Structures are given as C-alpha cells and as structure tokens.
Amino acid sequence: MKFMKRAPVTLLFLLPLLMGAACDQNAPSRADGNRNAIADNSESMSDTLVIKIGPREFTGTLFDNPTATAFRAMLPLTMNMTELNGNEKYFDLASSLPTSATNPGQINAGDLLLYGSKTLVLFYESFSTSYRYTRLGKVDDPTGLAQAMGSGNAVVTIQLK
After folding, report:
1. CB within 8 Å of 13: residues ≥ 6 apart
2. Cross-strand pairs, 111
3. Is 33 part of any domain?
4. pLDDT digits (tens, 9 = 90+) for 103-139
5. Burial environment of residue 115 by CB neighbours within 10 A (0 to 12, 13 to 18, 19 or more)
6. Maximum Cα interatomic distance, the chain, rounded to a whole number of Å
7. Do the bridges between strand 127-128 and strand 48-53 make them parallel or antiparallel, or are there none, so unpaired?
8. Is the pLDDT of residue 36 over 60?
9. What pTM was computed for the model?
10. Are 157 and 52 in contact, with CB atoms under 8 Å apart?
11. What are the Cα distances from residue 5, in Å, to 2, 14, 136?
12. Whether 71 contacts 65, CB under 8 Å
C-alpha cells in the first residue's frame, strides 16, 4: 500500500527528467554527434577569395588565424597597390590587424601576407627572405599572377567568393 502512494510522487520527480532527455533528441545534431555544442558558424564564413587584377581573376584561400578573420571583416576591398622590388605589391590598410609575425624563410608567388600590423602584401615572385610577416592567405594557382600584376602599381580587388 505504501508503494502505491509513493509511485505518483516518484513519477512526478522522474517526469521532468524523462521529458528533458526526449527534448534533447530533437536538438540539432552536429557531424561529431555533440547535440549540446553551440552550432559551428564557420560554414557560413567563406575562406575562398576572388582576387581581381584588371580583367584577370584568381581564387585564393584565407588561412584560419585571427589576422585572417579580422581581414575577412574588411572585405570587399579595392586597393591601388604599390610596386616594390619587382616581386610584390603592397597597400597600407586603414586600420591595424592582429599580428603573429614569423620569418617564413621562403616567400612563394601568391602569398598574401601582412607586414607590420597594417601593410598588406601580395607577392607575385618567389624568393628567400629575412623579414617577418603574418600569414593571411594565398593565391591557389599563381600562374599568370606576375603578368597580371605588371611592373607598376596595380588596382586589386579582394572579395569573398
């Protein structure tokens, strides 16, 4: 008899727990199976760039770092990039970006780097370097990049794809 009186009380305590577990089954699922994790919004943030130089378009990739994230927020960006050393074009941004400069040792054609905290550099020739840069991204296939950049200043537009 005592058990019969306790059953409804016990059920009242268990019911919210059972309902909570059932609700969890309807939560959006992520690929890793973690239903309680906050949704990953990186899918809506493109890492693919379109780099326009005159009539030419190149695709590029932004790296996954705080500097590239801050740069992404500035896009689209059209710049009159200044020629330097026959291997790069640079542009001074309006505001500083976070940095994590290292010496890459080797610059590759298509590297999109930050010199200091405000100078965006797009390299169109490969060479060794002793300077320090923060990596932003790269042109996926730099074939024809040097010709598109030309020997003087160049108007370059960088936007997300």
Report:
1. none
2. 138
3. no
4. 999 999 999 999 999 999 999 999 999 999 999 999 9
5. middle
6. 96
7. unpaired
8. no
9. 0.72
10. yes
11. 5, 15, 69
12. no
Number of structural domains in the chain: 1
CA–CA distance from 53 to each of 29, 123, 141, 160 (Å)?
A: 42, 13, 14, 15
Q: Is residue 20, in this structure, part of any structural domain at all? A: no
Which CATH number does the domain housing residue 102 bear? 2.40.100.20
CB atoms near residue 54 (< 10 Å): 12
- Residue-wise burial string across 22-49, b where 16 or more C-beta atoms lie within 10 A, e elsewhere: eeeeeeeeeeeeeeeeeeeeeeeeeeeb
Q: What is the mean pLDDT of the chain?
A: 81
Q: Is the distance from CB of 161 to CB of 61 less than 8 angstroms?
A: no
Is 8 part of any domain?
no
Q: What is the Cα–Cα distance from 95 to 92, expressed in whole angstroms?
A: 9
Q: Write the DSSP assignment of the chain as a string of letters.
A: -HHHHHHHHHHHHHHHHHHHHHHHHTSPPPTTS-SSSPP-GGGGS--EEEEEETTEEEEEEE-SSHHHHHHHTT-SEEEEEEEETTTEEEEE-SS------B--SEE-TTEEEEETTTEEEEE-S-EE----BEEEEEES--TTHHHHH-SS-EEEEEEE-
Q: Range of 76's domain?
A: 46-160
Name the residue type at position 141.
Answer: D
